[in-house]
Amino acid sequence: MPQIKPYNVKTYNAIVQAGLDRFADQYTINQTDDADAYLIRSVDLHDHDFPKHLKVIARAGAGFNNIPLDKATANGTAVFTTPGSNANAVKELMIAMFIAASRNLFAAADYAAQNSGADISKRTERDKTKFNGQELLGKTLAVIGVGHVGSLVANAASNLGMKVIGYDPYLSADAAWRISTSIERAATLEEALKNADYVTVHVPKNEETTGMIGAEQFAAMKPGVTVFNFARGGIVNNTEMIKALDNHQAVGYYTDFGSDEILNRDDVVVTPHIGGSTGEAETNGAVQGAETIMTFLETGNVLNSVNLPNLQVPFVSPYRITIMHKNIPNMVGQIATVLANANINIESMSNAAKGDVAYTIIDVNHLQHEQDTDLRERLSKIDAVYRARLLKNNL
């Protein structure tokens, strides 16, 4: 029968102790490189050789640019993020940036730091009009992407008295409930941008969103706009951003992602990727990552994976078989045939797909030792199967 065995977890980067403390007694931490799970933050795994036994990677954060999804999938490794764990941290930073931008706080502080002497009071009184700003009250903010972070930003800006227009072509029902009814929803990106005094992006980086704020979008904005990107580098096209600043279509750019072309400009403020850098956010991500790893390893259930579909089935049978496989015709039939040939009766079967990858959960009541010894091997011999696992319900 499947036996309870220790699971090995390897960590990269500094993982908050509160997350490590979440692991149950059957988990060992950093005792082997041949791990069942990785708990990571920003380490780049693109050139990494994944161990054969690596079943799951959990990143304590919302992005996954540092993880090669195709490589992980081919290894039969599920990849998870911890969406929402740093959402409040980013929201609070965004509010600070909106205020700093509208009141020219960075330029004003820099001026004050470089002036001294006996007549400083007179000079600052004379020069302070150079830093006159504007109030956020009544200004229009376009929030592009209203998921975990964007919805919080939109609601907070609305509470400050701003007119908020949200745009998100992938808006889920859950996200819709998080948005205040006072927030206008645009049908197109251009509609959201056209009247905005401020534009902020909060979308994941992928093929569709890379460069989504470019020449065409800047042309749709009204002159004098201020742009914020605290989501991911590359979502705003920096070359086109500089053009918009140079021709005064935009008056400022605030971002958490620096590059040579935007540095050393008075109208650009770059912060060193600090959006989610709070103790609370790091704790949230580590705890959520640890719980995600344990849930997947012990039950096979999937939530917030970036290469597997969400699939959550109550684990009430004594045994569970999980299969990660290609999303092609007749896979469920081939899997069922293997079980039938092994004289295994299926109590329940659930299947879902995400793009080219599918995931199947099968619950069974009875297994004999000889079935256990070769069942995974038989399932793994199906060409399109990435990984088959056999779990015992220990509750």
Strand content: 15-25%
What's the story with the biggest beta sheet? Answer: 7 strands, parallel
Output the strand order for the largest sheet.
Answer: 8-7-6-9-10-11-12
Would you tell me which CATH topology of the largest domain applies? Rossmann fold
Commentary on this structure:
With 395 residues, this protein is an alpha/beta fold. Helix content is 32%, strand content 20%. The strands form three sheets. The chain has a seven-stranded parallel β-sheet with strand order 8-7-6-9-10-11-12.
Question: What's this, in brief?
Answer:
With 395 residues, this protein is of the alpha/beta class.
Which descriptors would you attach to this protein?
395 residues; alpha/beta; Rossmann fold; Alpha-Beta Plaits; 3 domains; seven-stranded parallel beta sheet; five-stranded parallel beta sheet; 13 helices; elongated; phosphoglycerate dehydrogenase activity; D-isomer_2_OHA_DH_cat_dom; EC 1.1.1.95
Secondary structure: elements and pairs:
Blueprint: E1 7-11, H1 17-20, E2 27-29, E3 37-40, E4 56-59, H2 69-74, E5 78-80, H3 87-102, H4 105-113, H5 120-127, E6 140-144, H6 148-159, E7 163-167, H7 173-178, E8 184-185, H8 189-193, E9 198-201, H9 215-220, E10 225-229, H10 238-246, E11 250-255, E12 268-270, H11 279-299, E13 319-326, H12 331-341, E14 348-354, E15 357-364, H13 369-380, E16 385-392
Parallel strand pairs: 1-2, 1-3, 3-4, 4-5, 6-7, 6-9, 7-8, 9-10, 10-11, 11-12
Antiparallel strand pairs: 13-15, 13-16, 14-15
